[in-house]
Structure formats: structure tokens, C-alpha cells
Design a protein that fits this description.
The strands form two sheets. Strands 2-4-3-6-9-7-8 form a seven-stranded mixed sheet, sandwiched between helices. The protein contains five helices and nine strands. It has one domain: Aminopeptidase. Helix 4 packs across helix 5. It starts with a strand and ends with a helix. It is an alpha/beta fold.
């Protein structure tokens, strides 16, 4: 595996072929409150694309950037860090939604969900919902803060969103439905409280 992080979409596009090395899967019915984004889907951070689409269900729009590269000795991770992620379609749609929620996977064998981003009310709403589902939460003092102003989660209309980092055990197929349900429930609760005022 080659550890190479790209610094821009232009750089990634230069080295890789759309439809062969990567693809974009997006469903934008019309701009709504939330856009759920998996910037590191497919084989970059496995499970994040699937969870993103399950959270979106029929309620929210989603965008998923997915690596199609198979793991092997020549595998290159098509990773662009969140504050440098500038794929034009993602940027365009993110700016048309009030809030952006990003799904990530970290190389952590714990059972933790790490919450970040600049929207404290959104973070609290999702934290409370995940706790109902008995998930272990870290929402402060970790390295997945998601506080950079150019982080994808913070470029929606309200300039503050939510970043969710899931440990490896929480990105297994058997957990997809459960964790998606509680994240989605937290988003619904937030919308009922703040959707008309923000």
C-alpha cells in the first residue's frame, strides 16, 4: 500500500480515471437542510459510503466520493484531507445546504464515535441520540476536531456543521443500520428544534 495523500481534486484527477479508479455517487433531489457527505468512501475509509446513504435514506441529500481501487501491493489511497477537499460538485452542493454532515472512518479499534465540527447544537443532538443507542461518544479533546473553516462540514450556508469519525468496528455491515438510525434520529431532532430558525 502506498501512503499518498492528495492535496487537491485536480491533483487526484490527474493521476486517476473516473469510473475506473474512483466515482462520485450523489443524490440531490433539491437543496434541503442537510447534505450528508462521505468524502473518503469506497476503499478509502470503508463503510462510510454505505452509512452515509443509509442516514440520508429518503429524508436527506447525499454525496459520496468513492475509491474503486482494490486493495493490494500497489494500492494508493485516494485521500484528500477534509479542509483541502475541493471536488467541484461537492463544494457546489454543500454551499446550497444549510448544514453539512460528513462521515469519516478512523484507524481506531475502539467502539467510539468521535464528533467534531463547529455546530455545537448539532453535535449535542447527535451525541444524545447515539447515547440512546448505547454508543460510546467522544466530542471533545480528540484529534478529529473538524474545526477548520474550510473543512467540508463547515462550508454549508450556516458555516458550521458536524464531522463524524467512526472507529473500525462501527463501520462493519452488521452495525450499518443501527448507527445510521441513531445518527439520523439526532439530525431529525436538531431540525425540529433549529430548522426554522437557522
Amino acid at each position: 500500500m502506498v501512503s499518498k495523500y492528495y492535496k487537491s481534486y485536480k491533483e487526484l484527477k490527474r493521476d486517476n480515471r473516473y469510473g475506473i479508479d474512483y466515482q462520485i455517487d450523489a443524490r440531490i433531489l433539491f437543496p434541503k437542510g442537510f447534505l450528508i457527505v462521505a468524502p473518503h468512501g469506497g476503499t478509502i475509509e470503508p463503510g462510510t459510503s454505505e452509512i452515509t446513504k443509509k442516514i440520508a435514506a429518503n429524508k436527506f441529500n447525499y454525496y459520496s466520493f468513492e475509491s474503486l481501487r482494490a486493495y493490494g501491493p500497489d494500492y494508493i489511497s485516494l485521500h484528500i484531507t477534509s479542509h483541502l477537499f475541493d471536488e467541484p460538485e461537492c463544494i457546489r452542493w454543500s454551499k446550497q445546504h444549510k448544514w453539512v454532515v460528513t462521515l469519516h472512518g478512523c484507524n481506531d479499534q475502539s467502539q467510539k464515535v468521535y464528533l467534531g465540527g463547529l455546530n455545537q447544537e448539532l453535535k449535542i443532538s447527535v451525541k444524545n441520540s447515539l447515547r440512546e443507542g448505547r454508543f460510546s461518544i467522544a466530542d471533545d479533546g480528540h484529534k478529529y476536531g473538524g474545526v477548520h473553516r474550510r473543512n467540508i462540514c463547515n462550508i454549508g450556508k450556516n458555516r458550521s456543521g458536524l464531522q463524524i469519525e467512526l472507529a473500525i468496528p462501527l463501520r462493519q455491515p452488521k452495525v450499518f443500520d443501527l448507527i445510521s438510525f441513531y445518527i439520523g434520529k439526532g439530525l431529525d431532532t436538531f431540525l425540529k428544534k433549529y430548522g426554522k430558525t437557522n
